[in-house]
Amino acid sequence: METFKFKTNINCGNCVKAVTPHLNKLEGIQEWTVDTNNPNKVLEVKADSADAQEIKSTVERAGFEAELI
C-alpha cells in the first residue's frame, strides 16, 4: 500500500462532502482523509492500486485543486 499526500483547496466540511463520492468511487483507494486545519488542506490517500495521477484527476473532476507533496 502506498500513501499519497496532496495540497488541496478542500477547506471545509461541505467541500469534503462534495469530494467524498468521487474519491469513494475510485478503485484502489483503501482510505482517505483531509486535514482542513492544516494551512495546506492536506489530502492523505492510502491506495493499493490507484496512482497519484488518478487521484489528482478525480479530485479535479470534483471541482478542487490537488498538488502532490
Automatic annotation (TrEMBL):
<feature type="domain" description="HMA">
    <location>
        <begin position="1"/>
        <end position="67"/>
    </location>
</feature>
<dbReference type="GO" id="GO:0046872">
    <property type="term" value="F:metal ion binding"/>
</dbReference>
<dbReference type="InterPro" id="IPR036163">
    <property type="entry name" value="HMA_dom_sf"/>
</dbReference>
<dbReference type="InterPro" id="IPR006121">
    <property type="entry name" value="HMA_dom"/>
</dbReference>
<dbReference type="Pfam" id="PF00403">
    <property type="entry name" value="HMA"/>
</dbReference>
<protein>
    <submittedName>
        <fullName>Heavy-metal-associated domain-containing protein</fullName>
    </submittedName>
</protein>
